[in-house]
Protein backbone atom coordinates (compact mmCIF):
# COMPACT_ATOMS: atom_id res chain seq x y z
CA UNK A 1 0.00 0.00 0.00
CA UNK A 2 1.45 3.35 -1.03
CA UNK A 3 2.04 5.83 1.72
CA UNK A 4 1.41 9.55 0.86
CA UNK A 5 5.01 10.32 1.86
CA UNK A 6 6.28 8.13 -1.01
CA UNK A 7 4.60 10.49 -3.49
CA UNK A 8 6.50 13.60 -2.46
CA UNK A 9 8.78 14.81 -5.25
CA UNK A 10 12.17 16.24 -4.34
CA UNK A 11 12.75 19.87 -5.25
CA UNK A 12 16.06 21.72 -5.58
CA UNK A 13 14.57 24.93 -4.24
CA UNK A 14 11.93 27.59 -4.63
CA UNK A 15 10.89 28.59 -8.14
CA UNK A 16 11.25 32.38 -8.35
CA UNK A 17 11.88 33.08 -12.04
CA UNK A 18 8.84 33.90 -14.21
CA UNK A 19 8.45 31.13 -16.76
CA UNK A 20 8.52 32.00 -20.47
CA UNK A 21 5.38 29.85 -20.69
CA UNK A 22 3.62 31.95 -18.05
CA UNK A 23 1.37 33.73 -20.54
CA UNK A 24 -0.10 30.36 -21.60
CA UNK A 25 -1.09 29.67 -18.02
CA UNK A 26 -2.70 32.87 -16.79
CA UNK A 27 -6.25 31.78 -17.50
CA UNK A 28 -5.78 28.09 -16.72
CA UNK A 29 -7.01 26.36 -13.62
CA UNK A 30 -8.13 22.85 -12.83
CA UNK A 31 -10.88 21.52 -15.08
CA UNK A 32 -11.60 17.99 -16.22
CA UNK A 33 -9.04 18.68 -18.98
CA UNK A 34 -6.31 20.40 -17.00
CA UNK A 35 -4.70 20.03 -13.60
CA UNK A 36 -3.45 23.27 -12.04
CA UNK A 37 0.05 23.15 -10.61
CA UNK A 38 -1.39 23.76 -7.13
CA UNK A 39 -3.73 20.79 -7.44
CA UNK A 40 -2.90 17.06 -7.06
CA UNK A 41 -3.87 13.92 -8.99
CA UNK A 42 -5.45 11.20 -6.86
CA UNK A 43 -3.72 7.82 -6.73
CA UNK A 44 -7.00 5.96 -6.22
CA UNK A 45 -10.04 6.28 -8.42
CA UNK A 46 -12.90 4.23 -7.04
CA UNK A 47 -15.32 5.05 -4.26
CA UNK A 48 -14.35 1.95 -2.30
CA UNK A 49 -10.62 2.66 -2.62
CA UNK A 50 -11.10 6.25 -1.48
CA UNK A 51 -13.37 5.18 1.40
CA UNK A 52 -10.71 2.73 2.58
CA UNK A 53 -8.16 5.56 2.78
CA UNK A 54 -9.77 7.66 5.45
CA UNK A 55 -8.74 11.32 5.68
CA UNK A 56 -5.39 11.24 3.94
CA UNK A 57 -5.71 10.75 0.18
CA UNK A 58 -2.45 9.82 -1.54
CA UNK A 59 -1.90 11.98 -4.62
CA UNK A 60 0.68 12.75 -7.29
CA UNK A 61 2.11 16.12 -8.16
CA UNK A 62 0.73 16.99 -11.61
CA UNK A 63 3.01 17.33 -14.63
CA UNK A 64 3.06 20.38 -16.88
CA UNK A 65 4.55 23.87 -17.06
CA UNK A 66 4.79 26.06 -13.98
CA UNK A 67 4.19 29.80 -13.77
CA UNK A 68 7.57 30.22 -12.11
CA UNK A 69 10.69 28.16 -12.66
CA UNK A 70 13.81 27.39 -10.66
CA UNK A 71 16.53 27.53 -13.31
CA UNK A 72 17.51 30.59 -15.29
CA UNK A 73 17.27 29.33 -18.89
CA UNK A 74 20.17 31.52 -20.03
CA UNK A 75 22.53 29.69 -17.65
CA UNK A 76 21.39 26.17 -18.37
CA UNK A 77 23.23 23.27 -19.91
CA UNK A 78 21.14 20.14 -20.35
CA UNK A 79 22.20 16.54 -20.99
CA UNK A 80 20.30 13.59 -22.45
CA UNK A 81 21.12 9.89 -22.17
CA UNK A 82 19.28 6.79 -23.41
CA UNK A 83 19.95 3.49 -21.58
CA UNK A 84 18.90 -0.17 -21.63
CA UNK A 85 17.12 -2.11 -24.39
CA UNK A 86 15.72 -0.36 -27.43
CA UNK A 87 12.13 0.82 -27.49
CA UNK A 88 10.10 2.52 -30.23
CA UNK A 89 10.01 6.28 -29.69
CA UNK A 90 13.45 6.91 -28.19
CA UNK A 91 14.27 9.35 -30.97
CA UNK A 92 10.89 11.08 -30.56
CA UNK A 93 11.72 11.65 -26.89
CA UNK A 94 15.20 13.00 -27.70
CA UNK A 95 13.76 15.36 -30.30
CA UNK A 96 10.91 16.39 -27.97
CA UNK A 97 13.38 17.23 -25.20
CA UNK A 98 15.63 19.24 -27.53
CA UNK A 99 12.75 21.18 -29.11
CA UNK A 100 11.01 21.92 -25.82
CA UNK A 101 14.22 23.05 -24.13
CA UNK A 102 15.17 25.19 -27.11
CA UNK A 103 11.86 26.54 -28.35
CA UNK A 104 9.96 26.97 -25.08
CA UNK A 105 12.76 27.91 -22.69
CA UNK A 106 15.52 29.17 -24.98
CA UNK A 107 18.00 26.57 -23.71
CA UNK A 108 20.44 26.06 -26.55
CA UNK A 109 23.25 24.19 -24.85
CA UNK A 110 22.16 20.56 -24.93
CA UNK A 111 24.53 17.62 -24.80
CA UNK A 112 23.84 14.05 -25.87
CA UNK A 113 25.76 11.31 -24.07
CA UNK A 114 26.64 8.32 -26.23
CA UNK A 115 25.81 4.69 -25.43
CA UNK A 116 23.94 5.01 -22.18
CA UNK A 117 25.65 5.70 -18.88
CA UNK A 118 28.96 4.72 -20.51
CA UNK A 119 28.82 8.10 -22.25
CA UNK A 120 28.88 9.75 -18.84
CA UNK A 121 31.94 7.79 -17.84
CA UNK A 122 34.86 9.50 -19.59
CA UNK A 123 37.04 6.39 -19.24
CA UNK A 124 34.77 4.58 -21.71
CA UNK A 125 35.97 6.99 -24.40
CA UNK A 126 32.67 8.07 -25.95
CA UNK A 127 32.51 11.59 -27.32
CA UNK A 128 29.71 13.94 -26.26
CA UNK A 129 27.47 15.34 -29.02
CA UNK A 130 25.86 18.79 -29.21
CA UNK A 131 22.13 18.46 -29.85
CA UNK A 132 20.40 21.20 -31.81
CA UNK A 133 16.89 21.49 -33.29
CA UNK A 134 18.37 21.18 -36.80
CA UNK A 135 20.41 18.16 -35.76
CA UNK A 136 17.39 16.25 -34.48
CA UNK A 137 15.20 16.95 -37.50
CA UNK A 138 13.64 13.75 -38.88
CA UNK A 139 15.24 11.50 -36.22
CA UNK A 140 11.74 10.56 -35.05
CA UNK A 141 11.20 8.79 -38.36
CA UNK A 142 13.74 6.15 -37.38
CA UNK A 143 13.80 3.35 -34.82
CA UNK A 144 16.58 2.94 -32.27
CA UNK A 145 18.29 5.92 -30.65
CA UNK A 146 20.66 8.35 -32.31
CA UNK A 147 22.60 8.46 -29.05
CA UNK A 148 23.09 4.71 -28.79
CA UNK A 149 22.49 2.77 -25.60
CA UNK A 150 24.15 0.17 -23.36
CA UNK A 151 23.73 -2.11 -20.39
CA UNK A 152 26.18 -2.55 -17.52
CA UNK A 153 26.64 -0.64 -14.29
CA UNK A 154 28.68 2.51 -14.01
CA UNK A 155 30.02 4.39 -11.00
CA UNK A 156 27.65 7.24 -9.99
CA UNK A 157 30.57 9.23 -8.54
CA UNK A 158 32.28 9.22 -11.93
CA UNK A 159 29.02 10.16 -13.64
CA UNK A 160 28.47 13.15 -11.33
CA UNK A 161 32.13 14.17 -11.80
CA UNK A 162 31.41 14.21 -15.54
CA UNK A 163 28.20 16.25 -15.13
CA UNK A 164 30.05 18.78 -12.99
CA UNK A 165 32.98 19.06 -15.39
CA UNK A 166 30.63 19.70 -18.29
CA UNK A 167 28.48 22.12 -16.27
CA UNK A 168 25.28 20.12 -16.81
CA UNK A 169 22.35 21.35 -14.67
CA UNK A 170 19.59 19.15 -16.08
CA UNK A 171 20.05 15.45 -16.83
CA UNK A 172 17.32 13.60 -18.71
CA UNK A 173 17.54 9.83 -18.41
CA UNK A 174 15.44 7.94 -20.93
CA UNK A 175 15.43 4.38 -19.69
CA UNK A 176 13.77 1.49 -17.91
CA UNK A 177 13.79 0.23 -14.34
CA UNK A 178 17.56 -0.35 -14.34
CA UNK A 179 18.23 3.13 -15.72
CA UNK A 180 15.96 4.64 -13.07
CA UNK A 181 17.87 2.78 -10.34
CA UNK A 182 21.01 4.31 -11.83
CA UNK A 183 19.33 7.74 -11.96
CA UNK A 184 18.42 7.41 -8.30
CA UNK A 185 22.06 6.75 -7.37
CA UNK A 186 23.13 9.72 -9.51
CA UNK A 187 20.66 12.08 -7.81
CA UNK A 188 21.64 10.78 -4.36
CA UNK A 189 25.29 11.45 -5.21
CA UNK A 190 24.38 14.95 -6.42
CA UNK A 191 22.48 15.59 -3.16
CA UNK A 192 25.41 14.31 -1.08
CA UNK A 193 27.64 16.85 -2.86
CA UNK A 194 24.99 19.55 -2.35
CA UNK A 195 24.91 20.36 -6.07
CA UNK A 196 21.94 21.83 -7.97
CA UNK A 197 21.50 19.34 -10.81
CA UNK A 198 18.03 18.07 -11.67
CA UNK A 199 17.69 14.42 -12.72
CA UNK A 200 14.46 13.63 -14.56
CA UNK A 201 13.52 10.26 -16.04
CA UNK A 202 11.40 9.44 -19.06
CA UNK A 203 10.20 5.85 -18.62
CA UNK A 204 11.21 3.55 -21.49
CA UNK A 205 10.29 -0.10 -21.51
CA UNK A 206 8.50 -2.18 -24.12
CA UNK A 207 7.75 -4.61 -21.29
CA UNK A 208 5.60 -1.89 -19.64
CA UNK A 209 6.97 -3.03 -16.30
CA UNK A 210 7.54 0.31 -14.51
CA UNK A 211 4.83 0.89 -11.89
CA UNK A 212 2.76 4.09 -11.46
CA UNK A 213 3.37 5.47 -14.93
CA UNK A 214 0.26 4.05 -16.59
CA UNK A 215 1.82 2.85 -19.82
CA UNK A 216 5.34 3.30 -21.10
CA UNK A 217 5.99 4.91 -24.47
CA UNK A 218 6.67 2.53 -27.35
CA UNK A 219 4.58 -0.19 -25.76
CA UNK A 220 1.66 0.32 -28.13
CA UNK A 221 3.95 0.29 -31.19
CA UNK A 222 5.67 -2.87 -29.91
CA UNK A 223 2.49 -4.84 -29.39
CA UNK A 224 1.06 -3.64 -32.71
CA UNK A 225 4.18 -5.03 -34.39
CA UNK A 226 3.92 -8.23 -32.34
CA UNK A 227 0.29 -8.60 -33.45
CA UNK A 228 1.57 -8.95 -37.04
CA UNK A 229 3.47 -12.11 -36.03
CA UNK A 230 0.39 -13.49 -34.31
CA UNK A 231 -1.65 -12.83 -37.44
CA UNK A 232 0.96 -14.66 -39.56
CA UNK A 233 1.03 -17.62 -37.17
CA UNK A 234 -2.75 -17.80 -37.26
CA UNK A 235 -2.88 -17.77 -41.05
CA UNK A 236 -0.24 -20.52 -41.16
CA UNK A 237 -1.97 -22.64 -38.53
CA UNK A 238 -5.39 -22.30 -40.12
CA UNK A 239 -4.04 -23.32 -43.52
CA UNK A 240 -2.64 -26.70 -42.41
CA UNK A 241 -4.34 -29.82 -41.15
CA UNK A 242 -3.84 -29.94 -37.38
CA UNK A 243 -2.02 -26.61 -37.51
CA UNK A 244 -0.52 -25.03 -34.41
CA UNK A 245 0.80 -21.47 -34.46
CA UNK A 246 3.20 -20.68 -31.63
CA UNK A 247 4.47 -17.12 -31.12
CA UNK A 248 6.99 -16.08 -28.48
CA UNK A 249 7.09 -12.38 -27.59
CA UNK A 250 9.36 -10.26 -25.41
CA UNK A 251 8.39 -9.68 -21.81
CA UNK A 252 10.96 -10.63 -19.23
CA UNK A 253 8.79 -10.57 -16.13
CA UNK A 254 5.57 -8.98 -17.40
CA UNK A 255 3.16 -10.42 -19.94
CA UNK A 256 1.70 -7.14 -21.19
CA UNK A 257 2.97 -7.41 -24.77
CA UNK A 258 1.73 -11.01 -25.07
CA UNK A 259 -1.67 -10.10 -23.58
CA UNK A 260 -2.27 -6.95 -25.63
CA UNK A 261 -0.94 -8.40 -28.89
CA UNK A 262 -3.14 -11.46 -28.43
CA UNK A 263 -6.19 -9.27 -27.79
CA UNK A 264 -5.38 -7.16 -30.86
CA UNK A 265 -6.19 -10.09 -33.16
CA UNK A 266 -8.57 -11.87 -30.82
CA UNK A 267 -7.56 -15.15 -32.44
CA UNK A 268 -5.31 -16.67 -29.78
CA UNK A 269 -6.50 -19.82 -28.03
CA UNK A 270 -3.90 -19.71 -25.28
CA UNK A 271 -1.79 -16.91 -23.80
CA UNK A 272 0.98 -17.92 -21.41
CA UNK A 273 2.59 -15.21 -19.27
CA UNK A 274 5.08 -15.17 -16.37
CA UNK A 275 2.49 -13.91 -13.89
CA UNK A 276 0.23 -16.96 -14.28
CA UNK A 277 2.00 -20.28 -13.65
CA UNK A 278 0.71 -23.28 -15.58
CA UNK A 279 1.24 -27.01 -15.66
CA UNK A 280 2.45 -28.49 -18.95
CA UNK A 281 0.65 -31.71 -18.03
CA UNK A 282 -2.55 -29.68 -18.06
CA UNK A 283 -1.75 -27.44 -21.03
CA UNK A 284 -0.53 -30.04 -23.56
CA UNK A 285 -3.64 -32.30 -23.52
CA UNK A 286 -5.85 -29.18 -23.61
CA UNK A 287 -4.02 -28.00 -26.74
CA UNK A 288 -4.37 -31.42 -28.37
CA UNK A 289 -8.12 -31.44 -27.68
CA UNK A 290 -8.44 -27.94 -29.09
CA UNK A 291 -6.69 -28.93 -32.32
CA UNK A 292 -8.89 -32.03 -32.58
CA UNK A 293 -12.07 -29.96 -32.02
CA UNK A 294 -11.26 -26.89 -34.14
CA UNK A 295 -8.66 -28.10 -36.64
CA UNK A 296 -5.98 -25.68 -35.50
CA UNK A 297 -4.84 -23.61 -32.50
CA UNK A 298 -2.85 -20.47 -31.78
CA UNK A 299 -0.59 -20.09 -28.73
CA UNK A 300 1.07 -16.83 -27.63
CA UNK A 301 3.81 -17.05 -25.01
CA UNK A 302 5.74 -14.31 -23.24
CA UNK A 303 9.47 -15.02 -23.06
CA UNK A 304 9.42 -14.95 -19.26
CA UNK A 305 6.63 -17.53 -19.01
CA UNK A 306 7.26 -21.13 -18.01
CA UNK A 307 10.81 -20.57 -16.76
CA UNK A 308 10.00 -23.00 -13.95
CA UNK A 309 9.74 -25.75 -16.60
CA UNK A 310 13.31 -25.19 -17.79
CA UNK A 311 15.01 -27.29 -15.19
CA UNK A 312 18.80 -27.23 -14.94
CA UNK A 313 18.98 -23.92 -16.82
CA UNK A 314 22.07 -22.16 -15.37
CA UNK A 315 21.47 -18.74 -13.79
CA UNK A 316 22.99 -16.19 -16.18
CA UNK A 317 22.92 -12.41 -15.83
CA UNK A 318 23.38 -9.67 -18.42
CA UNK A 319 25.79 -6.78 -17.88
CA UNK A 320 23.13 -4.83 -15.96
CA UNK A 321 22.38 -7.74 -13.64
CA UNK A 322 19.12 -8.72 -15.37
CA UNK A 323 18.50 -12.46 -15.44
CA UNK A 324 19.04 -13.97 -18.90
CA UNK A 325 16.08 -16.18 -19.52
CA UNK A 326 16.04 -19.69 -20.89
CA UNK A 327 14.26 -20.07 -24.24
CA UNK A 328 10.89 -21.37 -23.13
CA UNK A 329 9.32 -20.84 -26.58
CA UNK A 330 11.66 -23.38 -28.17
CA UNK A 331 11.19 -25.74 -25.23
CA UNK A 332 7.43 -25.47 -25.59
CA UNK A 333 7.66 -26.11 -29.33
CA UNK A 334 9.55 -29.36 -28.68
CA UNK A 335 7.19 -30.40 -25.91
CA UNK A 336 4.15 -29.84 -28.16
CA UNK A 337 5.73 -31.86 -30.97
CA UNK A 338 6.66 -34.68 -28.55
CA UNK A 339 3.19 -34.67 -27.04
CA UNK A 340 1.41 -34.97 -30.40
CA UNK A 341 3.88 -37.69 -31.46
CA UNK A 342 3.31 -39.65 -28.23
CA UNK A 343 -0.43 -39.48 -28.87
CA UNK A 344 0.13 -40.52 -32.52
CA UNK A 345 -1.59 -37.34 -33.72
CA UNK A 346 -0.64 -35.24 -36.71
CA UNK A 347 0.56 -31.71 -36.01
CA UNK A 348 1.93 -28.96 -38.25
CA UNK A 349 3.54 -26.43 -35.98
CA UNK A 350 4.83 -23.04 -37.09
CA UNK A 351 6.96 -21.20 -34.56
CA UNK A 352 7.58 -17.44 -34.81
CA UNK A 353 9.76 -15.38 -32.47
CA UNK A 354 9.87 -11.78 -33.77
CA UNK A 355 12.22 -10.85 -30.90
CA UNK A 356 14.08 -7.59 -31.63
CA UNK A 357 11.87 -6.87 -34.65
CA UNK A 358 9.15 -5.48 -32.37
CA UNK A 359 11.28 -2.96 -30.51
CA UNK A 360 13.57 -1.59 -33.22
CA UNK A 361 10.82 0.04 -35.28
CA UNK A 362 9.84 3.74 -35.33
CA UNK A 363 7.02 4.77 -33.02
CA UNK A 364 3.47 4.79 -34.36
CA UNK A 365 1.60 8.12 -34.27
CA UNK A 366 0.00 7.34 -30.90
CA UNK A 367 3.39 6.70 -29.32
CA UNK A 368 4.96 9.69 -31.09
CA UNK A 369 2.37 11.97 -29.51
CA UNK A 370 2.89 10.34 -26.13
CA UNK A 371 6.70 10.62 -26.43
CA UNK A 372 6.50 14.32 -27.23
CA UNK A 373 4.13 15.01 -24.35
CA UNK A 374 6.31 13.03 -21.91
CA UNK A 375 9.33 14.99 -23.14
CA UNK A 376 7.49 18.27 -22.61
CA UNK A 377 6.48 17.20 -19.09
CA UNK A 378 10.06 16.15 -18.31
CA UNK A 379 11.46 19.53 -19.39
CA UNK A 380 8.81 21.45 -17.41
CA UNK A 381 9.61 19.38 -14.29
CA UNK A 382 13.36 19.90 -14.62
CA UNK A 383 13.05 23.66 -15.28
CA UNK A 384 10.91 23.92 -12.13
CA UNK A 385 13.78 22.35 -10.15
CA UNK A 386 12.13 19.00 -9.54
CA UNK A 387 14.53 16.10 -9.32
CA UNK A 388 14.74 12.33 -8.81
CA UNK A 389 11.42 11.84 -10.57
CA UNK A 390 10.08 10.12 -13.62
CA UNK A 391 7.24 11.57 -15.67
CA UNK A 392 4.24 9.38 -16.41
CA UNK A 393 0.56 9.37 -17.13
CA UNK A 394 -1.64 8.18 -14.30
CA UNK A 395 -5.33 7.66 -15.11
CA UNK A 396 -5.09 10.06 -18.06
CA UNK A 397 -3.19 12.87 -16.27
CA UNK A 398 0.52 13.66 -16.56
CA UNK A 399 2.18 13.25 -13.15
CA UNK A 400 5.56 13.28 -11.43
CA UNK A 401 6.46 9.93 -9.88
CA UNK A 402 9.37 9.96 -7.40
CA UNK A 403 12.02 7.54 -8.70
CA UNK A 404 12.24 5.61 -5.40
CA UNK A 405 8.54 4.75 -5.83
CA UNK A 406 8.95 3.92 -9.52
CA UNK A 407 11.68 1.38 -8.73
CA UNK A 408 10.00 0.02 -5.60
CA UNK A 409 8.25 -2.75 -7.51
CA UNK A 410 7.40 -4.06 -10.94
CA UNK A 411 4.31 -3.49 -13.02
CA UNK A 412 2.86 -6.89 -13.92
CA UNK A 413 -0.34 -8.29 -15.35
CA UNK A 414 -2.58 -8.89 -12.34
CA UNK A 415 -4.11 -12.39 -12.61
CA UNK A 416 -7.10 -10.94 -10.72
CA UNK A 417 -7.24 -7.76 -12.81
CA UNK A 418 -9.44 -6.82 -15.74
CA UNK A 419 -6.75 -7.22 -18.45
CA UNK A 420 -6.21 -10.88 -17.67
CA UNK A 421 -9.98 -11.34 -17.38
CA UNK A 422 -10.27 -9.97 -20.95
CA UNK A 423 -7.61 -12.44 -22.09
CA UNK A 424 -9.47 -15.33 -20.44
CA UNK A 425 -12.72 -14.15 -22.04
CA UNK A 426 -11.14 -13.74 -25.49
CA UNK A 427 -9.25 -17.04 -25.52
CA UNK A 428 -11.63 -19.23 -23.56
CA UNK A 429 -8.60 -20.76 -21.84
CA UNK A 430 -9.11 -21.90 -18.24
CA UNK A 431 -7.78 -19.70 -15.40
CA UNK A 432 -5.33 -22.50 -14.68
CA UNK A 433 -4.33 -25.75 -16.33
CA UNK A 434 -4.67 -28.74 -14.10
CA UNK A 435 -3.34 -32.13 -15.08
N1 LIG B 1 20.48 -1.77 -9.83
C1 LIG B 1 21.08 -0.78 -10.52
N2 LIG B 1 21.71 0.22 -9.87
C2 LIG B 1 22.30 1.22 -10.55
N3 LIG B 1 22.32 1.31 -11.88
C3 LIG B 1 21.72 0.35 -12.58
C4 LIG B 1 21.07 -0.74 -11.95
N4 LIG B 1 20.56 -1.55 -12.90
C5 LIG B 1 20.88 -0.97 -14.07
N5 LIG B 1 21.57 0.17 -13.89
C6 LIG B 1 22.08 1.08 -14.92
O1 LIG B 1 21.04 1.37 -15.88
C7 LIG B 1 21.45 1.02 -17.19
C8 LIG B 1 20.30 0.35 -17.92
O2 LIG B 1 19.79 -0.74 -17.14
P1 LIG B 1 19.15 -2.01 -17.82
O3 LIG B 1 18.60 -2.89 -16.74
O4 LIG B 1 20.10 -2.63 -18.77
O5 LIG B 1 17.98 -1.43 -18.75
P2 LIG B 1 16.62 -0.72 -18.41
O6 LIG B 1 16.91 0.63 -17.91
O7 LIG B 1 15.92 -0.71 -19.70
O8 LIG B 1 15.92 -1.57 -17.38
C9 LIG B 1 22.68 0.14 -17.05
O9 LIG B 1 23.60 0.45 -18.04
C10 LIG B 1 23.21 0.50 -15.68
O10 LIG B 1 24.19 1.50 -15.81
O1 LIG C 1 18.59 -6.36 -25.44
P1 LIG C 1 18.81 -7.61 -24.68
O2 LIG C 1 19.96 -7.47 -23.74
O3 LIG C 1 18.89 -8.81 -25.54
O4 LIG C 1 17.57 -7.82 -23.73
C1 LIG C 1 16.32 -8.26 -24.11
C2 LIG C 1 15.30 -7.77 -23.11
O5 LIG C 1 15.12 -6.38 -23.26
C3 LIG C 1 13.74 -6.06 -23.32
O6 LIG C 1 13.39 -5.86 -24.67
C4 LIG C 1 13.44 -4.79 -22.58
O7 LIG C 1 14.02 -4.78 -21.34
P2 LIG C 1 14.50 -3.41 -20.68
O8 LIG C 1 13.39 -2.44 -20.86
O9 LIG C 1 14.71 -3.73 -19.23
O10 LIG C 1 15.71 -2.97 -21.38
C5 LIG C 1 13.05 -7.31 -22.77
O11 LIG C 1 11.76 -7.49 -23.29
C6 LIG C 1 13.98 -8.40 -23.22
O12 LIG C 1 13.89 -9.52 -22.38
MG1 LIG D 1 14.70 -3.29 -17.28
Keywords:
PFKA; 12 helices; nine-stranded mixed sheet; 435 residues; ATP_PFK; binds magnesium ion; Rossmann fold; alpha/beta; 19 strands; EC 2.7.1.11; elongated; four-stranded parallel sheet; ATP binding; metal ion binding; binds adenosine-5'-diphosphate; single chain; 2 domains; binds 1,6-di-O-phosphono-beta-D-fructofuranose
Task: Give a quick rundown of the structure.
GO terms for molecular function: 6-phosphofructokinase activity; ATP binding; metal ion binding. The chain is of the alpha/beta class.
What's the helical proportion of residues?
25-40%
Quantity of strands, as a count? 19
Enumerate the spans where pLDDT stays under 50 for 5 or more consecutive residues. none
Roughly what fraction of the amino acids lie in strands? Answer: 15-25%
Kindly provide the name of the CATH class of the largest domain: Alpha Beta
Gyration radius (Cα, Å) is 23 Å
Mean pLDDT: 96
* CATH architectural group of the largest domain: 3-Layer(aba) Sandwich
Which word captures the global form? elongated
For the record, give the distance between the C-alpha atoms at the N and C termini, rounded to a whole number. 36 Å
Strand order of the largest sheet: 3-4-19-18-10-9-6-7-8
- Distinct compounds present: adenosine-5'-diphosphate, 1,6-di-O-phosphono-beta-D-fructofuranose, magnesium ion
Most strands sheet = 9 strands, mixed
Amino acid sequence: MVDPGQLIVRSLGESRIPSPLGSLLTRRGTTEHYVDEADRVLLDDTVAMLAARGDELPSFEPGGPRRRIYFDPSKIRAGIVTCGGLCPGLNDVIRGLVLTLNNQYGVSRILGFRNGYQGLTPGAGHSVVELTPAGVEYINEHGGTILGTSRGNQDPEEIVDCLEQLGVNLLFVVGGDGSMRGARLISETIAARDRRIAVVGVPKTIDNDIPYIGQSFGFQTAYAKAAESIRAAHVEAAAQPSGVGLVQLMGRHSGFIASYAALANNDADYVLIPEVPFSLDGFLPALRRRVADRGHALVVVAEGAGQEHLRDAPLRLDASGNRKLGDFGLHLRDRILDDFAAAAREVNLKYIDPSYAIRSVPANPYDSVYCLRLAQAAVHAAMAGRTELVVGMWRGRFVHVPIPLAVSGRNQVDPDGDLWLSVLEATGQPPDFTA
